[in-house]
């Protein structure tokens, strides 16, 4: 499943970067202005925003790809990046409902669901239930989770 999330996030990174680049070209060629803003500034801002968001979604895709390759759940910075991606998709879904339509909203919700599913259910160890500690592990207070083996008499 992490492979699917990585593919979707890479595709979204290219789509967002390409769309913003295209919008920057349109603004530049039409010489449009919004409330007196310089058209060249708007064009450069759109292109820069597309690059930044494209790189952000590509970073999220790299984290999902690492999860798939390592066959381990994300931890640390990678987990924070995927959580932020889920939040961003939730916010984008709310915005695109009114601005673009229900199909874009549906796409955002599907991506949000995939990222949350990756965060909540991915455990790369097959056959072992999630949340179990390895043999001889310790709890949060340092006490052993499994009792030590009883000594045998000679």
How does this model look, in words?
This protein has 154 residues and is mainly α. It has helices at 2-30, 39-70, 77-99, 102-121. Helix 1 packs antiparallel against helix 2 (39-70), helix 2 packs across helix 3 and helix 3 runs antiparallel to helix 4. It contains 4 helices and no strands.
Discrete helix count:
4
Helix content: 55-70%
The radius of gyration over CA amounts to 23 Å
Q: What gap, in angstroms, lies between the N and C termini? A: 53 Å
Q: How is the main sheet built?
A: none
Q: Tell me, rounded to a whole number, the average pLDDT.
A: 83
Low-confidence stretches: none
The structural class is mainly alpha
Strand portion: under 5%
Question: What gross morphology would you assign?
Answer: elongated
List SSEs in N-to-C order. HHHH
């Amino acid at each position: 499943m992490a492979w699917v999330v990585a593919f979707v996030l890479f595709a979204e990174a290219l789509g967002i970067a390409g769309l913003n680049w295209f919008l920057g070209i349109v603004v530049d060629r039409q010489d449009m202005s919004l409330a007196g803003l310089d058209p060249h500034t708007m064009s450069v801002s759109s292109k820069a925003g597309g690059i930044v968001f494209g790189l952000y979604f590509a970073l999220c895709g790299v984290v999902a790809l690492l999860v798939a390759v390592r066959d381990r759940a994300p931890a640390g910075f990678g987990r924070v990046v995927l959580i932020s991606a889920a939040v961003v998709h939730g916010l984008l879904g709310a915005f695109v409902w009114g601005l673009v339509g229900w199909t874009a909203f549906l796409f955002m919700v599907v991506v949000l669901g995939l990222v949350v599913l990756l965060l909540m259910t991915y455990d790369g160890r097959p056959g072992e239930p999630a949340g179990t500690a390895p043999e001889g592990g310790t709890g949060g207070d340092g006490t052993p989770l499994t009792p030590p083996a009883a000594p045998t008499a000679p």
